[in-house]
Amino acid sequence: MTTDELRRLFLDYFRERGHTVVPSASLVPEGDPTLLFNVAGMVQFKQFYASKGEIPFTRAASVQKCLRATDLEEVGRTIKHHTFFEMLGNFSFGDYFKREAVEWAWDFLTDVVGIPAERLVVSVHVDDEESAGIWRETAGIGEERSYRRGDEGNFWGPAGASGPCGPCSEVHDDFGPEAGCGRVECDPACDCGRYIEVWNLVFPQFYQDTDGERRPLERRGVDTGMGLERLAMICQGADTLFATDVFRPIVGFIKDEVDFGDRGEADEVGVRVIADHARALCFAISEGALPSNEGRGYVIRRILRRAVVRALNLGVDKPFLYKVAGRVIDVMRDAYPELDEKREQIAIVIKSDEERFQGTLERGMNILSEALDEIVRGGGGEVPGETVFKLYDTYGFPVEITRELASSAGVSIRAWGSNGSR
Ligand SMILES: [Zn+2]
Question: Engineered SS bond to 102: which of 134, 212, 315, 356, CB 3.0-4.6 Å?
């Protein structure tokens, strides 16, 4: 099943069950300064849960454009991390609650898209006997495939500084003991790679204010989120996100362009980072988010620079990312025609920032390579804090990029202080 088919099947499934299919809200949130980018399908609906008045519908389904830049260093190194992704979601605002949410999720995963039931396990909030009971009755999932967790794992929200929140129940795909750490206590909370979260069913019950106070929600309901790319990975039997039908053409294009040949894993990571980041840049720039030195723009600039550094590392010293962006648009334009409409603008923004940074990045890369060579020749150690700072301050190297490049050479870095995370 292709990603396009999965997207359509999901919306059809919930449309047939009385849901209004609502277009994705913008990736760059309007009127919510607490959020740099949209991170979940429910963001555009969050006022519905707290509404005492009329709302246009009580059931909705959407495919939301999302961008999360919190785990940038993991992108490309794991099978499951990415920045831009599409989130499938069904929502109830004072309409159905846990039973339908669980029944439909199970039916969709096992019957509609055909994931073998025995591969799926669930997690349930420790106090949520009701959901545990529904999983048992609906899916035949007993204690041995149901994991109970507290607020740290199975309580969601709010998205941003305030909003609806509540306990949740997650469905995970189990790749089997041989894929994991092998510990007896390994469970879906373990990040060894055995389990991957597929679908999170949130049951909003509270509204959390900016000061952290919670009150009962006017319309308790359902808010679910399932990463389309992850679902595609599982349905296509792909071993990483980057081997799915949406990423393969982009990865292939990059490899052709850099004459990849039979290079090793470190360079594979570089290719995946470029593929992922080019997608994020296309979507963000198509909505008018531009690289700059603060806030949202800084996130864009950081993503762009990370990709340019990776390209340089693969031997590309000319503007290149804008061409990858063109390939991204070719792959995504049927579902997102707005990318095609902004094709030229996206290319111009990326190319001009690439050109601006390429020269300084190249000098920075030489400095880092020399420092690493010296450390490796000297039998080990770490990149000194002043070098890390100079790379950041003068040459525009995000600290995590310095760390990633150093760690490929088996060397760690010394941060230079509280500002180190930037
Ligand atoms: Zn484990």
Answer: 134
Same domain, 366 and 266: yes
**Domain contains 242:** no
- Tokens linked to 203: 């049951």
Chain-centre distance for alpha carbon 261: 29
- Cα of 191 from ligand 1 centre, angstroms: 6
Strand ranges inside 68-129, DSSP E: 84-93, 120-125
Considering 187, 209, 236, which residue would you say is the last residue of a domain? 236
Q: Examine residue 276 and state whether it is found in any structural domain, yes or no.
A: yes
What stretches of 70-218 show up as alpha helix (H) in DSSP? 98-107, 129-139, 151-154
- CA of residue 199 to ligand 1 center, whole Å: 19
Q: What is the pLDDT along the chain (422 residues), one digit of tens a residue?
A: 999 999 999 999 999 999 999 999 999 987 766 678 998 998 899 889 989 899 999 999 999 999 998 888 788 778 788 899 999 999 999 999 999 999 999 999 999 999 999 999 999 999 999 999 999 999 999 888 999 999 988 998 887 788 899 999 999 999 999 999 999 889 999 989 899 999 999 999 999 999 999 999 999 999 999 999 999 999 999 999 999 999 999 999 999 999 999 998 889 999 999 999 999 999 999 999 999 888 889 899 989 998 998 898 898 889 999 999 999 999 999 999 999 999 999 999 999 999 988 878 888 889 999 999 999 998 888 999 999 999 888 887 878 778 888 888 889 988 765 444 43
Centroid of ligand 1 to alpha carbon of 171 (angstroms) = 16
Q: Is residue 241 part of a domain?
A: no
Q: Among 207, 236, 265, which residue terminates a domain?
A: 236
Give me the number of domains the chain comprises.
2
Residues in the chain: 422
Instruction: For residues 169 and 49, state if they share a domain.
Output: yes
Between the CA of 184 and the centroid of ligand 1 the distance, in Å, is 8
